[in-house]
Amino acid sequence: MKHIFLTSIFAAAIALPAFAADYTIMAPAAPGGGWDQTARSLQTVMQKEGISSNVQVMNVPGAGGTIGLAQFTGQNSGNPNALIVGGYVMVGAILTNQSPVTLKDVTPIARLTGEYEAIVVPTSSDIKTMADLVAKLKAEPGAVSWGGGSAGGTDHIAVGLIAKASGVDPTKINYVAFSGGGEALAAIMGGQVTAGVSGYGEFESQIKSGQLRLLAVSGDKRIDGVDAPTLKEAGIDVSLQNWRMVAAAPGLTPEQTAAVTADFDKLSKSAGWQEMLKTKGWADTYLAGDAFKAQLDKDVASTETILKDIGLVQ
Question: What residues have CB less than 8 Å from 89, skipping those under 6 apart?
Answer without folding.
Answer: 34, 35, 64, 65, 149, 150, 152, 153, 154, 155, 242
